[in-house]
């Protein structure tokens, strides 16, 4: 019997990642930007693939005395522009392809915003809703211990994501600090204020989504106070985006999450909906609106549609049915490659691509990191002013390039981010 042809480890890794639909989507977006930029072949390959893929098993003693093994991943896409930055998610569907895609998007997001970071992402395949606080603490501390050789304030700085929060970050700070023998608040961002977190970090991503959606509405010649809004996802991002838009006069007509969807043509009262969703762990049953099928949410007629949950929710099947004027991507990768092609052909929806739209979180994470390193603090007003200034600058840059080169918004945003990483790679050269 003939021996099968040998496959190099690098090629095997590439094939494994491309087998993931999420990473394949991220790679297709990158390839399109790289093609537009006409990158040198060597630079194009170096920028595309992640530098490090780290997978670890995490043994945890459960409350009933049993031992359970969890599998965790951390991908560090690029360290050329500084330490990698990106969230840590706890979710049952976490896999290495998803994590690698999210790390890639974070690289372009940081570069587009002008931050001195590369992209990173991590995740543990678990169901945090089914775990007790002591079990989550043991999981977090053991994962942090397993990651210590690969993290640090100048190497890899994690942050909250789906299924994680300030408390998880606090446990990580403590575990790492015990290891090094001194308090190191710069090891993560999204910490509680009592551990040198930043004011406005919790609402930063949602605030930024709302701010950019309002810029887009005004660019279309509309008034924010007349705008109607639909949100898919009402966690940290969706709820604060809704609050900010409501405060500026927009009408939130529908909201949905994993528990269901609610609708009110006269507008949902977000001041009541936010505490209700926290108490009931979802929006289903909210008395200020009527229940609607979740599958109808994305195709409701509105001015601003905000997908703020997980990736790949706008697909080839529903893209032609969207009835919004602005698509503000609060989630990472919510629009598939096939859906993108449909939206471009329609040319009647102003798309705010995810790497710009949800960058408020990483921008304020950068502020938090700087404050921790310099042992200083800024007021909430200062943080939000700096955030809006940086978002507005990115918005202008993307609009300018899109208009000059007749590019879709996503390609323009990706091209700006990819170009900055490519320039850094070429300036630094290749170490022998």
Automatic annotation (TrEMBL):
It comes from the Bacteria. Substrate binds at residues 85, 109, 365. Residues 198-429 form the Glutamate/phenylalanine/leucine/valine/L-tryptophan dehydrogenase C-terminal domain. NAD(+) binds at residues 205, 236. The active site is at residue 121. SMART domains: ELFV_dehydrog (SM00839). InterPro entries: Aminoacid_DH-like_N_sf, Glu/Leu/Phe/Val/Trp_DH, Glu/Leu/Phe/Val/Trp_DH_C, Glu/Leu/Phe/Val/Trp_DH_dimer, Glu/Leu/Phe/Val_DH_AS, Glu_DH, NAD(P)-bd_dom_sf, NAD_bind_Glu_DH. GO terms for molecular function: glutamate dehydrogenase (NAD+) activity; nucleotide binding. Belongs to the Glu/Leu/Phe/Val dehydrogenases family. PANTHER family: GLUTAMATE DEHYDROGENASE, GLUTAMATE DEHYDROGENASE 1, MITOCHONDRIAL. This is Glutamate dehydrogenase. It comes from Roseimicrobium gellanilyticum.
């Amino acid at each position: 019997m003939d021996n099968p042809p040998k496959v190099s480890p690098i090629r095997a890794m590439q094939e494994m990642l491309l087998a993931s639909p999420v990473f394949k989507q991220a790679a297709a977006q990158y390839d399109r930007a790289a093609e537009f930029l006409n990158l040198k072949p060597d630079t194009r390959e170096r920028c595309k693939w992640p530098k490090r893929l780290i997978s670890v098993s995490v043994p945890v003693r459960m409350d009933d005395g049993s031992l359970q093994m969890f599998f965790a991943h951390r991908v560090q896409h690029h360290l050329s522009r500084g330490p990698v930055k990106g969230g840590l998610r706890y979710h049952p569907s976490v896999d290495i392809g998803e994590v690698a895609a999210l790390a890639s998007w974070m690289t372009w997001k940081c570069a587009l915003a002008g931050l001195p970071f590369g992209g990173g992402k991590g995740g543990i395949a678990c169901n945090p809703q089914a775990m007790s606080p002591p079990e989550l603490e043991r999981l977090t501390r053991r994962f942090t211990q397993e990651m210590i050789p690969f993290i640090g304030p100048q190497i890899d700085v994690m942050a909250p994501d789906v299924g994680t929060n300030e408390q998880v970050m606090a446990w990580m700070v403590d575990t790492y600090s015990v290891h090094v023998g001194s308090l190191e608040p710069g090891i993560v961002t999204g910490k509680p204020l009592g551990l040198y977190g930043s004011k406005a970090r919790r609402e930063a991503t949602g605030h930024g989504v709302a701010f950019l959606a309002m810029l887009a509405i005004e660019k279309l010649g509309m008034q924010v106070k007349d705008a109607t809004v639909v949100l898919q996802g009402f966690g940290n991002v969706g709820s604060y985006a809704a609050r900010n838009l409501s405060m500026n006069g927009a009408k939130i007509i529908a909201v949905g999450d994993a528990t269901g969807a609610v609708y009110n043509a006269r507008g949902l009262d977000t001041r009541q909906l936010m505490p209700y969703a926290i108490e009931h762990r979802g929006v289903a049953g909210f008395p200020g609106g009527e229940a609607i099928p979740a599958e109808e949410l994305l195709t409701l007629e509105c001015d601003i549609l905000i997908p703020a949950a997980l990736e790949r929710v706008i697909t080839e099947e529903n893209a032609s049915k969207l009835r919004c004027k602005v698509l503000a991507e609060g989630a990472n990768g919510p629009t598939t490659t096939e859906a993108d092609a449909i939206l471009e052909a329609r040319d009647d929806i102003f798309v705010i691509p995810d790497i710009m739209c949800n960058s408020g979180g990483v921008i304020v994470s950068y502020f938090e990191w700087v404050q921790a390193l310099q042992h200083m603090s800024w007021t909430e007003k200062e943080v939000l002013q700096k955030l809006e200034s940086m978002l507005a600058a990115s918005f202008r840059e993307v609009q300018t390039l899109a208009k000059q080169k007749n590019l879709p918004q996503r390609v323009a945003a990706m091209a700006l981010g990819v170009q900055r990483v490519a320039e850094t790679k070429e300036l630094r050269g290749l170490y022998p």
